[in-house]
Amino acid sequence: MVNDKLLDIVETEGVTIVPAVLDHERVGRLRAELEQAIAEDAVNYPDVFDKGMVHNCMVRGVEMARLLDDAVMNAYLDKAFSDTCIVYAYQSSSLPPSQGNYGSRVHVDSPRFIPGYATNLGVIFPLDDFTLENGATHYLPGSHHSADLPTDEFFFANAKRACCRAGDMILFNGRLVHVAGFNATSRTRHSLTINICRSYMRQRFDFPRLIPPQIIDGFGEKGRRLIGMNVRMPTSLDEFYLPPD
Length: 245
Hints:
five-stranded antiparallel sheet, 29% helix, 15% strand, single chain, three-stranded antiparallel sheet
């Protein structure tokens, strides 16, 4: 299930693309859920700095929740990163027509730099083809090995583009320097993004408390671990002395 050559590319280049992880029908269902969530947020959160970005996607749709149990994604996470890793954040990244987005700046997804040790791994599921025209992500190969961000001029002079198909999976080191592109087409380009961190790190939200019990009950073993169910702290001695099961 895991292509070791693709994992080697993550180590050297900082990013790799795993083809055809999601089928066409599944991509369509995910896209429909995401568009509904974006429309709801436009009403409920109209003036936020990251307008158009949906947070905590696992509570915004059944298919988006099920994605955390995806067998291919988890096989790559276990081998490329850690079999105890958890979700730091699960959100969307969309490029409306004739626009960039909050990610359209030279940046990394992890503020920590430890030589030879990744604290975060990024996962992107394109729900539309990523093309040069609709803003395929710019990235600087090998930049995850550096503690310093490049200048904008150096970045764009040396960057590559992550062109791929809807349903592929992009894996990248959290220290990889990248930029969301500009969508020059007439159709919004959607994707889902999951930031994965080490099990000893804090998550952006307290997912075990944020996610309704009925959604948690629907997760498999991998999904439950990813949302942080295995790293909860007891709030009392009664919880501390609960049996392992």
